[in-house]
Write a structure and sequence with these properties.
mainly beta, Immunoglobulin-like, 2 domains, seven-stranded mixed β-sheet
Length: 268
């Protein structure tokens, strides 16, 4: 069973009140909010852009054994009824013998905001906690404060990030996804079998249990013909018993040509 690496570093907090167009700079990372205007359905399209110093990396929502997942606190925002994040397909890195999953040099994270009151402005205010790594790994915390521009036009940077999202099951021609569950000494083993064409090159499957209290080990991935087989162990951080809901299990296949996002799996 893999053990999740914890970084013994002190969080760095940047506490600055920002005008709408300002950027927040930390020791390694710089954050700014991009405007994409209001959509036809009344939501706001925006993005959080994190620019890193050369050679530094940050992490995906499931960062692997050697990473810290980004976390947002939106509670100080005004007139925000809902937040939907689209994650661009990440890269897989070997980090001191451990696998990490994330982005190098820059991350553009599209965010769609549903306002509570469509007639009022939307202000995004809060913090982003993220891990950054090069020769060493440190956590950073960056604050943001930005009133969204409803009249902003199409933003090519946001459009490019949206185009980098993983394929859906339909787009990737996934015929079937099943999960066989079996108990282990510490938790539960998931063996996922996904029938789909190759995503190109070396494929890495990432399994997310769908419950934030649960943690999945690095997945062992192999391909047998048209079926990708991925195995991972899931444990409860508190050490207690737990149940797995197959409909909540998320499987992401990262290949050389594209990534595939698979929501839920049948009994297998």
């Amino acid at each position: 069973m893999s053990v999740k690496k914890i970084f013994p570093a002190i969080a760095l907090t940047i506490g600055v009140a920002l005008p709408a167009t300002a950027q927040v700079k930390g020791p390694v990372a710089e954050l700014d909010i991009l405007d994409g205007g209001r959509t036809a359905k009344g939501t706001y399209l925006s993005a959080v852009r994190v620019t890193l110093q050369d050679g530094w990396k940050t992490y995906w929502r499931a960062p692997g054994d050697a990473g810290i997942p980004p976390e947002f606190n939106w509670t100080r925002s005004d007139n925000v009824g809902g937040v939907s994040i689209t994650w661009p397909a990440p890269d897989v890195f070997d980090q001191n013998g451990l696998q990490s999953i994330g982005y190098e040099n820059q991350l553009v994270l599209p965010v769609e905001i549903t306002p509570k009151n469509p007639a009022r402005p939307v202000r995004l205010q809060g913090t982003m906690d993220l891990g950054v790594c090069k020769d060493v790994c440190i956590p950073e915390q960056l604050e943001f404060d930005h009133t969204l521009d409803a009249e902003a036009g199409r933003n090519p940077t946001i459009a490019a990030a949206l185009a980098q999202r993983p394929f859906s099951e339909r787009e990737a021609n996934v015929a079937q996804a099943s999960c066989h569950l079996s108990p282990t000494a510490d938790g539960m083993q998931i063996e996922a079998r996904v029938t789909m064409p190759s995503a190109g090159g070396r494929e890495v499957a990432v399994i997310e249990p769908g419950n934030p209290a649960l943690w999945a080990s690095q997945t062992q991935t192999k391909r047998t013909g048209n079926t990708l087989v991925a195995t991972s162990e899931v444990i409860n951080a508190s050490g207690g018993p737990f149940a797995l809901d197959r409909s909540e299990i998320r499987i992401t296949v990262l290949g050389a040509n594209h990534a595939v996002d698979i929501q839920g799996c049948s009994a297998g």
